[in-house]
Specification:
Elements: H1 21-29, E1 38-39, H2 45-55, E2 67-73, H3 75-91, H4 97-105, E3 112-119, H5 128-148, E4 152-156, H6 164-169, E5 176-187, H7 199-202
Antiparallel strand pairs: 1-5, 2-3, 3-5, 4-5
Helix pairs in contact: 2-5, 3-4
Flavin mononucleotide binds next to strand 4.
Length: 207
């Protein structure tokens, strides 16, 4: 990670724009890598910290900070896998053992997984919808940061993002939802471009 990368001091002057053909290229060509195609190595501690920091720099109306992170690395991934497997087995008593084992290994697909939790303050003047959007922007910032640091990533929800018991295991409150699990690692193979929206289909001009 470049040494110059330090969080700016509060109130420090910042560039209004940062022209960068590398940034444009990254955004123009970025692709998610499916978790099954991720592997070692993952980001080191400093780089992971930078990815989290960049994630947290997402636009946030009235600075509510309506998000928080839970990081899964090392043995914690297997420990969370045990929770997934146990929950899955209870919910699906007829499930085959190998399906339950898949759940046990789910978080071992990548060296690092970051749960981005949308943590809405319903009392706040900023509408809940805007607070939820901020959590989405956090996820996207992380994908871009991961790519810029040379890592592949995928934003995933899957069943466990919507499961009350799993959410409880993450000490989530009623006002919290999983915005995404961001899997980060190194691609075993490069992804291919997918179909993209045709601008003519989604753009109109007001007149
Ligand atoms: C909120 C959200 C949840 C997602 N959940 C999943 C998921 O559970 N499984 C999956 O394969 N892709 C999921 N995706 C899609 C991928 O992250 C990815 O965006 C998609 O494959 C398109 O690839 P791209 O990012 O290269 O455009 C999700 C995307 C979003 C925004």
């Amino acid at each position: 990670m470049p040494k110059s990368l330090k969080s700016p001091e509060f109130g420090a002057p910042l560039p209004a724009a940062s022209p960068s053909s590398d940034a444009v290229e990254l955004l123009w060509r970025r692709r998610s890598t499916p978790a099954d195609f991720l592997g070692e190595p993952g980001p080191d501690a400093e780089t992971l910290n930078a990815i989290l920091t960049i994630g947290a720099r997402a636009p946030d109306h009235r600075r509510v900070v309506p998000f928080r992170f839970v990081v899964f690395e090392g043995a914690a991934r297997a420990a969370f896998g045990d929770v997934l497997a146990q929950t899955f087995a209870v919910d699906n008593p007829a499930a085959e053992e190998r399906r339950v084992e898949f759940e046990r290994r789910r978080f071992l697909r990548a060296p690092v997984v970051i749960a981005v939790i949308s943590s809405i303050n319903p009392e706040h003047k900023t509408p809940a919808w805007e607070q939820a959007l901020t959590a989405g922007a956090v996820c996207q910032n992380m994908l871009i940061a991961a790519s810029a640091f040379g890592f592949a990533a995928q934003w995933i929800t899957e069943w466990y993002a919507f499961h009350d018991g799993i959410n409880e295991a993450l000490s989530m409150t009623e006002d919290e939802k999983v915005a995404g699990y961001i899997y980060v690692g190194t691609a075993k193979e490069d992804p291919k471009e997918r179909a993209r929206p045709v601008l003519e289909d989604i753009v109109t001009r007001f007149h």
